[in-house]
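Write out the 3D structure for:
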Amino acid sequence: MDICAPFAGIVRFHVAAGDQVTTGDPLATVEAVKLEAPVLAPGPGTVARLAAEDFADVLGGDLLLEVEK
């Protein structure tokens, strides 16, 4: 599953490649000005890779990470 940024901002990851996640686990947070949005796991799986670095600038729709079932 490709996990994408909900809007433009700075991404901060809460997981690393190889971590096991379950539905609803926080994967990352995207922050912009005074707005902060958690990025949650849509289903169980394993984090395959992070597509951005911690505290990188991202745009809405940018790939953040991949979760494999």
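The chain has a mean pLDDT of 97.
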